[in-house]
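Model the whole thing, not chain by chain.
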Amino acid sequence: MQAADNTPPGSNSLTSGTWTNHAEWLRGHGESKDVVMSSRVRLARNIAGFPFTPQASRVDRAQVLEACKHRILNMSPACSGDDSASKTQNTPQNKTDARFIWIDLHRVGREDRSLLVERQLMSRQHAKGKYVTGQGGIDEPRSVAVLVPDERVSIMINEEDHIRLQTIRSGLALGECLEQANEIDDQIEAGLDYAYNPRFGYLTACPTNVGTGLRLSVMLHLPGLKMTGEIEKVKRAASDMGLAVRGFYGEGSEASGDFYQLSNQTTLGKSDSMLLREMELEIIPKVVGYERHARKNLLSTRKSMLDDKIYRALGTLRHARLMKVDESMELLSMIRLGIMTGILNDVTLHQVHTLLLNTQPIHLQRTLDQTLSQQQRRVARADLCRKALGQANTPPAGNA
Amino acid sequence: MLCDCGQHEATIHEVIITSDQRKVERHLCEECARELGISLDPYVPISQLLNNANYIMGQVITDENASPDDDFFEEIDPDSPPKKTPTPTKPVAAAQSCEHCGQTFAKFKSTGVLGCQLCYEAFEDRIGPMIERAHEGGCNHVGKVPLRALSECQSTNDRSRMDSLLGDLKQREESLGELRTSLTHAVEHEDYEQAALLRDELTRLTTQSTSQGASQIEAQPAVDSDQNDSTNPSVTVKKLESDSPEHSS
């Protein structure tokens, strides 16, 4: 799919060629990458003079959408942010290639919407288009703008707020995420008036987001704490510290594969620098420390149990004939732990991360370029895992 | 230790720090806590606070404007006995709906979302305390202001627009006062990084509201030649505020 301004009429499907091999959050690089999969910053903003999205009429929503589209597609491509990280990885990306593509969710199919959710570019709520007021549905005018090709930025239009701007990075990199988010926020505001008041700051539909409108999140991989039985304690401690703990796909999702999203709850009364400092320098390093400590303990006191779990996971992935997505995430989580603890040497992080994405339902079907029933997907998923993780130095296994 | 009711062991101990820094302690058994609508969770999400709208600052406040079908407590614990309202203290402000979008307060309580930006003004008295509780006591915005809007105000010296962005003089002084208090607290607890961030925020606030962003004072708000201690907040802050009461740490 091309940028909205030259999309052929009637074209409304996302082709697999639009997307790079790796979503940013799966690159497996960055600070504390052994525990921190990715960092994400989200800013919530509303345009002055329009009702908030959940209460707005369809006409209002359509007008907000047009205003945002006009602004975002006319922004300077230089707002792609700091690309120094990608340069050091020798990728072909550079600032002049970066551009926003605009996707109208009410005009694409269900699979395309699910694809975007799987890539962590937007929320499930945005895919469904339903608001807490009971209004809305799949035909509601709403969109997402994605910065390609690096997918580090996505901007949801008419989710719970008019604009929800998200930046994402591999590893613990909340500072870089926030910097890029602020740049883009300033660019958008240069062309639109925001709803703001001196006491409550940036005004949002739900008062939980008011003030800075800033949500700082990290995706953590905590298999060690799960195995030592300490994960519930950590979740309670996180809650005491004012953090929300959610699953892989954020609000409304359960933890699977030992992946947990931690994010701040407070957005008012502290500046974004203060919130950043608390998360990045105080809270997250503590949780990372706990996980590293748990892994170290397991390696020294329960090594054979750990080996067994990891190799059983590898065995299942290399030989199973049916695989549900929850199971694949649990098993891949063990493989990731195996790589990070040095127990597994013939599987790479790149393979694991690629599989984490391509075992998701829509990505699985897009990889094979087929539409599959649930049972067919379970067969295909198992096939994919066997091929990707086949024995070292043996050719990929044929189809069962 | 016995509960305030005198009948059961107190297992819930609540300490409330009031806005004038007084400590109010309550020692309650589970039953009394539940009756007063105190959540047993350390963190109270706003959806629960919305349904517990009358529990503010340790006292149950009767909302004289509540309609008969408002059920404030339904979603907290459907199995718990109906809550009593022991001591009505002060009535809450009256706004039932926003004049601009028509959103009612009752609808806000049931959905958790407001209708438009003006709902914040319409319901300010009622949602202010709720917001404060949901944001760990934060009640005034600290931090970023829309950049282009602010620079336009500064370059045209548009005072009324400036007030709509930064607040009138009273609001700004309140924000500054809160920041000064937080700064003192941070220094007393030797959290100098936090203190530095707060000091920067104080500087930003005092320079924002002038034309072209020019500082109201000549000296930088860092170490002044008369001062020996650059982390002394009281002296630094005093320099920033030429027209507000002297601060004492």
